[in-house]
Amino acid sequence: MSSTQNNILMEIAPRIVSLGGPSVHRLMPYAKKRMIGPFIFFDYFPATEFAAGEGMNVRPHPHIGLSTLSYLLEGKVLHHDSLGCKQVLSPGDVNWMTAGKGISHSEKVPEELRGKAHRLHLLQFWVALPVQHEDTEPSFTHHPQSSIPRFEEKGADISLIAGSAFDRTSPVKTYSPLFFMDVKLNAGQVFEFDPGTQELAFFIIAGQLSLGEKNIAPDDFVILEHDSSLKVTATTATHFVVLGGESFPEPRHIFWNYVSSSKDKIEMAKEQWRNGTFPMVQGEPDIIPLPAGS
């Protein structure tokens, strides 16, 4: 076991960020803690009701040097990328898109929900790629809910969305050691996990957890010290996610939607998006331009 338990490094409150309509709670990137294992970006889209004609409409935008992980709790989202992949994400499903040397994609309300009132509840992450995989060929894989391992561990209801934990491994292909779990506890139940040498953080979606004498409420992103294991008790029925992994030996630079160990690669990708030579989503000319002044 780790030498300490529930040793909190920091707690991060979300920033509210507009996506040109709906708003998300952004937990990462964060100035005082750039990464948690390979995780470098985390947006939480809280359960939101949309009227007919409204909803997610994220125009095509580019990525390099990372994989995106989209995990849907409620609603539906249409993914469309420059490889030609079109996929509707449904509750419990996972989309894993590896940008590698370059991919662009859009995320929109699917045809079946257009013109209808609907609800959306979503978590999205960027997972930085190891240096040796930063220039890999881009790819996209959809994992339906039925393919995601779900099991009980001492009463905890766990879905292993990505990576390895509790002697199990998710079918989602990752490029470095990590874990991402969806956990549900009834009041009074306990969840324990020792990440060993990997970093660990957790985020409460609903309910409340106690770490010893400290209570943690929803929207609080808690990061543990590197040598600490996790033991939490649900004070009420609680839904939360646990994530982390092995940290990289070298830092990552992040600009807009680009992540890389090389600033030069980011500058090259900026120029490609600016001049139209970056891989584009066919049939969707209305792209998100580079930020002004970049």
User: pLDDT below 50 for ≥5 consecutive residues: which ranges?
Assistant: none
Q: How much of the sequence is in beta strands?
A: over 45%
Largest sheet: 8 strands, antiparallel
**Helicity, in percent?**
under 10%
CATH architecture, by name, is Sandwich
Average pLDDT taken over every residue: 94
Q: Could you walk me through the main structural features you see in this protein, from its secondary elements to its overall organization?
A:
With 294 residues, the protein is mostly beta strands. The chain has a single domain (4-245), classed as Jelly Rolls. 4% of the residues lie in helices and 50% in strands. It is built from 1 helix and 26 strands. The strands form 5 sheets. Strands 2, 14, 15, 16, 17, 19, 22 and 24 form an 8-stranded antiparallel sheet that branches. A 7-stranded antiparallel sheet has the order 3-4-5-12-7-10-13, with no helix packed on it. Strands 1, 18, 20, 21 and 23 form a 5-stranded mixed sheet that branches. The protein is globular. The mean pLDDT is 94.
Summarize the entry for a quick read.
It contains 1 helix and 26 strands. The strands form 5 sheets. Strands 2, 14, 15, 16, 17, 19, 22 and 24 form an 8-stranded antiparallel β-sheet that branches.
